[in-house]
Design goal:
- By secondary structure, this protein is mainly beta.
- It contains one helix and 35 strands.
- The chain folds into two domains: 5-26 and 33-353, Glycosyl hydrolase domain, family 43 (Tachylectin-2, Chain A, 5 Propeller), CATH 2.115.10.20; 356-506, Sandwich (Jelly Rolls), CATH 2.60.120.
- The longest helix is centred in the first third of the chain and has 20 residues, at 5-24.
- It has a six-stranded antiparallel sheet, with no helix packed on it. The protein has a six-stranded antiparallel sheet with strand order 25-34-27-28-29-30, with no helix packed on it.
- Helices cover 4% and strands 49% of the residues.
């Protein structure tokens, strides 16, 4: 349907006015104590959020921009929300950074620091922040997605759209989510951007962020059961700190992920400044998360020297994101996690280490032998949030793990199933079922020779699990009836098994 000029004008004035209010008139609420409000994960004070955007470190601040609807708790009016932190844990939400304008929504993208003013958009002899994002809107020719830029001279507080946008337009309805970084070796900007329906990540280069030259395509490859979105190309060092590391290309898949709905795969290989080539070593294709609830994770740009790359994702799933039982917000982020490469006799794998230790407070040591359904009394009645770090002695052909009970009828089960070579998290009995497909058991393949260790971060509405030296990550939302937990260890064959480790109570990030 064609809108009249007057109708478009009225709509534009209304959207701009509402965006101005959202940007300048909204204050951060003090209430972060709702029943399912995460206490160690970022969520906006109100309204809808999905993908993280423009993660960057600049002048002592970590910036988290995010897909945001300033006007409600459902997807729409996509703009960039904004929060800052000194440690990637304690976030201060700021006004909307880049609002929807004239019916063009601001989709996912990245932010770079233009250190040498290659763009000409910074002040003379100065550096500035430049955002590269997908603009999505209707044109007389139909829906169109294009790549655009904006710049900030005040550390990301206000943004100016480039007056010659878009900078990249293929006249396509689906062409999105640019990931941009500076390639110091080639002295050029590199963009990875998705052609979702074709299952292709396309690479471009630019000297100035304004003019882009096509370099190469990667794909189709790996899993192609859904749209490819949210690509991210980054270099990951070896965990031993000595070898040269590897290039990782991470790609979102929606729908059609192995666990159902949306998920993310990665490819490991090499990048020569023009083309990404997947390695032929075992483990060169995997999943950044084997749970239901980690999507469009991207890495921080411009981290301080000698820091490993850090990945952060949206903790939800497009299957049911609009039905989550939270208010006045809907959507949250995962914990940030540092990446490194594991090379062992079984092949390659990404290792992920959650950044959470700064929130630890009191702790309880755990060291016990247990058989079938043997409880360990000193970790009863724990109140979320908390962290468990455990090492299991596992019998071959058995199932060992733990159940996190919120009452006698509701629990989340986490375990190692050596008979089927699977690590799993089962939320079938965890509490409120958001929809018919929500109660589920998610699995990841166990790799022989890697340890049976487990790191769990339990928040009010989520369980983040890391196993086998961080080479398995599994994130799942849960909606239990109580925040008081008791923890029971189990062993399927009844034989005695040792478990040792520690439980830490975690401080809330909202207690300032």
């Amino acid at each position: 349907m064609t809108r009249s000029l007057s109708g478009n004008l009225v709509r534009s004035v209304l959207v701009i006015a509402l965006a101005f209010f959202a940007r300048n008139g909204r204050t951060q609420t003090s209430g972060y104590d709702q029943p399912y409000r995460p206490q160690v994960h970022f969520s906006p004070s109100e309204h809808w959020t999905n993908d993280p955007n423009g993660l960057v470190f600049f002048r002592g601040e970590y910036h988290l921009f995010f897909q945001y609807n300033p006007f409600g708790d459902e997807w729409g009016h996509m703009s960039w929300g904004h929060a800052i932190s000194k440690d990637m844990l304690h976030w201060k939400e700021l006004p909307v950074a880049i609002p929807e304008k004239d019916g063009v929504m601001i989709f996912t993208g990245s932010i770079v620091i233009d250190l040498h003013n290659t763009s000409g958009l910074c002040a003379p002899k100065s550096e500035c922040m430049v955002a590269i994002y997908t603009g999505s809107g209707d044109t007389p020719q139909g829906p169109r997605q294009t790549q655009n830029i904006a710049y900030s001279h005040d550390n990301g507080r206000t943004w100016i759209a480039y007056d010659r946008n878009p900078v990249l337009d293929l006249h396509l309805a689906d062409f999105r989510d640019p990931s941009v970084f500076w390639d110091d070796k080639q002295q050029q900007w590199v963009m990875a951007v998705s052609l979702p329906k074709e299952h292709i990540v396309r690479f471009y280069s630019s000297p100035n962020l304004k003019e882009w030259t096509q370099l190469s395509d990667f794909g189709p490859a790996g899993d192609v059961a859904g749209d490819w979105e949210c690509p991210d190309l980054l270099h990951v060092p070896d965990s031993n700190g000595k070898d040269g590391g590897v290039w990782a290309l991470k790609v979102g898949l929606n729908p059609g992920a192995p666990q159902g709905g949306s998920g993310e795969q990665y490819f490991l290989g090499s990048f020569d400044g023009k083309r990404f080539a997947q390695s032929n070593e075992p483990g060169s294709h995997g999943w950044t998360n084997y749970g239901k609830d980690d999507y469009c994770a991207i890495s921080f740009n411009h981290l301080p020297k000698n820091q490993n790359p850090v990945l952060l994702g949206w903790m939800s799933n497009w299957q049911y994101a609009a039905k989550l039982p939270t208010s006045p917000w809907r959507g949250q982020m995962s914990l940030p996690r540092r990446l490194s490469l594991v090379r062992d006799e079984t092949g390659l794998a990404l290792k992920q280490e959650p950044i959470v230790t700064a929130l630890r407070s009191t702790s309880i040591p755990i060291s016990a032998a247990f058989g079938s359904n043997k409880e360990i009394d000193n970790i009863h009645k724990q109140i979320t949030p908390y962290e468990l770090e455990l090492e299991f002695g596992v019998n071959s052909g058995s199932v060992s793990g733990l159940r996190i009970y919120s009452d006698d009828q509701h629990w989340t089960e986490v375990g190692f199933d050596t008979q089927h070579a699977e690590f799993y998290v089962d939320r079938s009995n965890s509490g409120l079922a958001v929809m018919a497909d929500f109660p589920t058991r998610t699995t990841a393949p166990l790799v022989a020779g890697r340890p049976y260790d487990l790191r769990l971060i339990v928040d009010r509405s989520s369980v983040e699990a890391y196993a086998q030296n961080g080479t398995i990550a599994m994130t799942n939302l849960i909606y239990p009836p109580s925040q008081t937990n008791k923890i029971k260890f189990f062993q399927s064959d009844g034989k005695s098994v040792m478990v040792k480790g520690r439980l830490w109570k975690l401080h809330s990030i909202w207690n300032r």
